[in-house]
């Protein structure tokens, strides 16, 4: 391994590959780029996730989006609220497609390299850079962008919940579900806490279905049981009821996402935590794709500038307004206080807000008037109580 680089990106997942792709895109071919070394622990890629998001802003992966839904809905019993925005569809990108696109971009630049199967350890300041200890020896870099998953010390569990989900892509005889509509939440009754099914029709014979619930402690044996057994069985029963027994499994995905405000680690101005580790994921929704693209574009611009000026330093991008962060924290507090009421809140919120307000709010780009509309759409009592409790505890 070459012992020096300008920029080390630790982890080649969504954030690491997005930053690299943005950087390639903003460096003209005739201009030399900074030396960028991506260090990734995995030896092999697996198609272990899909990213869904409202496609509102330009990003390097537009060409490889595989599905778009102009309509979305939420359901609870026989209630259904549906909204439509055909200009900015709810869109799906598979992990494999994103990675292929990023690898192709990286391959166009000799200054970029990706090393797989390397385990990054500690990072320590050195003269003119940071030293990175790895399973394949040491490396010194002028800048370090760290996208490895957050350590538990960065996750204040008492300020949020874990979003626990299991998803399956299935093949079946004609399912009859309209291909234009993504079902974001179909709330399920008779289970403890909030449970919902997320359903994306991929074509006439294929569906992506996920069962989601929340838990307060990822390390608790109950949470592990939910993930390894209970949710997969519940999802399978739900599919049997909906499709009969004629479906076959083609792919699975599983997650346990921290819906809480992450505290990113700080070292010095040459080090930046990014991705989930940097707090880029929206705590109240578990969505990260849109804010990740904004963050990646900002970080890539800073790297580009640093390589031209020789001032090697980074500042964290500002991804969400303080007002949005406050609202998300109030929402998480309310969810912890009264989880059983959440399906009713969501139905009311979707009923009382427009497609554009929902899309911009959930897609991480709300204007002030969208935030006001969202506040008006939520029941005052539980949210005032949550806001009061949050203020008292802070
Ligand atoms: C199944 C699933 C579905 C999701 N769906 C959506 C969605 O639809 N929409 C959305 O917006 N968000 C979604 N998310 C949330 C979020 O967008 C993803 O988790 C996203 O991958 C986070 O990006 P990241 O770069 O922070 O982390 P990752 O993509 O996980 O990348 C971190 C990388 O660091 C590597 N790494 C770890 N330790 C080391 C080490 N010691 N040394 C070197 N490398 C290391 C890992 O192998 C990994 O490749 C989903 C998450 C999951 C798990």
Automatic annotation (TrEMBL):
This is Lycopene cyclase. Keywords: Membrane, Transmembrane, Transmembrane helix. It comes from Vreelandella andesensis. It comes from the Bacteria. The chain crosses the membrane at residues 7-25. The keyword Membrane applies.
């Amino acid at each position: 391994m070459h012992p020096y680089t300008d920029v080390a990106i630790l982890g080649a997942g969504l954030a690491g590959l997005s930053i690299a792709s943005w950087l390639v895109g903003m460096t003209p071919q005739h201009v030399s780029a900074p030396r960028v070394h991506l260090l990734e622990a995995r030896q092999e890629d697996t198609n272990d996730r899909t990213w869904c998001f409202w496609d509102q802003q330009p990003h390097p992966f537009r060409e490889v989006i595989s599905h778009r839904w102009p309509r979305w809905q939420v359901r609870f019993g026989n209630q259904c609220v549906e909204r439509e925005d055909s200009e900015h569809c709810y869109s799906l990108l598979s992990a494999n497609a994103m990675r292929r696109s990023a690898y192709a971009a990286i391959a166009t630049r000799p200054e970029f390299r990706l090393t797989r199967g390397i385990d990054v350890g500690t990072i320590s300041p050195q003269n003119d850079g940071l030293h990175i200890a790895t399973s394949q020896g040491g490396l010194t870099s002028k800048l370090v962008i760290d996208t490895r998953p957050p350590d538990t010390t960065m996750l204040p569990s008492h300020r949020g919940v874990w979003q626990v989900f299991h998803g399956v892509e299935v093949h079946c005889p004609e399912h009859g579900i309209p291909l234009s509509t993504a079902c974001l939440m179909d709330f399920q009754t008779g289970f403890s806490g909030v449970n919902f099914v997320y359903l994306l029709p991929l074509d006439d014979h294929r569906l992506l279905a996920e069962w989601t619930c929340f838990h307060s402690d990822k390390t608790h044996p109950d949470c592990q049981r939910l993930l390894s057994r209970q949710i997969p069985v519940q999802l399978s029963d739900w599919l049997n009821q909906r499709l009969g027994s004629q479906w076959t499994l083609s792919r699975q995905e599983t997650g346990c996402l921290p819906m809480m405000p992450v505290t990113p680690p700080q070292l010095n101005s040459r080090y930046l935590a990014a991705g989930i580790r940097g707090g880029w994921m929206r705590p109240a929704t578990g969505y990260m794709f849109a804010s990740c693209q904004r963050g990646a574009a900002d970080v890539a611009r800073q790297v580009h500038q640093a390589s031209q000026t020789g001032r090697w330093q980074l500042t964290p991008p500002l991804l969400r307004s303080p007002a949005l962060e406050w609202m998300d924290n109030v929402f998480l507090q309310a969810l912890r206080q009264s989880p059983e009421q959440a399906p009713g809140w969501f139905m009311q919120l979707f009923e009382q807000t427009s497609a554009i307000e929902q899309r911009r709010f959930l897609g991480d780009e709300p204007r002030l008037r969208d935030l006001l509309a969202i506040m008006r759409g939520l029941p005052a009592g539980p949210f005032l109580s949550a806001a009061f409790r949050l203020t008292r505890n802070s």
